[in-house]
Structure formats: C-alpha cells, structure tokens
C-alpha cells in the first residue's frame, strides 16, 4: 500500500541518468528507519551527542526529527497536518506513514512527503 503511494510521487530528477528517484529513496529509508541521525551516529562515534540540535527535546532519531521535534510539529501544523497524526504515539515511522496514508487525501499525503523531505533537507543544511 505505501509502496503504491510512494511510486506515484511527482518527482523531477536532477539528470536524465538518475535511476532511483530521491523522494522514493527517502521514503523507503524513512519507513525502514535507515535515515542517519544523531542516535545512529553516536553509536558509531562515542563522542557524538544523541540530542536534537533544533529543540534539545530528546534523542534525535529520524522519527523525532520529522514528527516529534517542536519545530517539525510547528511546520506540519502550519501546513495543516495536525490533530491525530501528530498526537498519537507510534512505535515506528512506517506505522505513522501508514496511518497518514489512510487518513489523508492522496494529494495531501504527497504534500506530507514533500514537507518531510524539505524538513530533513533543512536540518542537513543547517548542520553542514
């Protein structure tokens, strides 16, 4: 189900030779908890902090960075993604994405993926 939604995301590739579209790869990594965040980095490099650099509200996992961080919640609420999607507790990103897919209209779900993509890119750009 999620795979069908992911494959229909409108993406303009950077060049004609691109094989895997970036947003499809992003959602796949997000749903499988493979986005590298501070918690994973700190398990490799012991001196690296686990905390969220944006809100200092806990360990920075991909799920925290895109849903639980106060700055991410504010951005999602401004875009109309609030209510039960932000208030319910989910164990994994894939559970949250599946619930979002069931609750949201197809176009709104596509917008949510774009917002999450932009949130993650803004966090990466702030660090580097």
Automatic annotation (TrEMBL):
Origin superkingdom: Eukaryota
| Name the record gives this protein | Reverse transcriptase zinc-binding domain-containing protein
């Amino acid at each position: 189900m999620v795979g069908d939604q992911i494959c229909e995301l409108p993406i303009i590739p950077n060049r004609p030779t691109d094989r895997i579209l970036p947003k499809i790869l992003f959602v796949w990594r997000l749903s499988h908890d493979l986005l590298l965040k501070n918690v994973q980095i700190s398990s490799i490099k012991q001196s690296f902090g686990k905390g969220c650099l944006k809100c200092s509200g806990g360990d920075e996992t991909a799920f925290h960075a895109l849903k639980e961080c106060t700055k991410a919640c504010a951005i999602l609420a401004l875009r109309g993604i609030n209510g039960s999607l932000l208030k319910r507790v989910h164990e994994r990103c894939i559970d949250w994405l599946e619930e979002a897919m069931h609750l949201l209209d197809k176009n709104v779900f596509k917008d949510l993926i774009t917002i999450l993509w932009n949130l993650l890119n803004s966090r990466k750009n702030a660090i580097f």
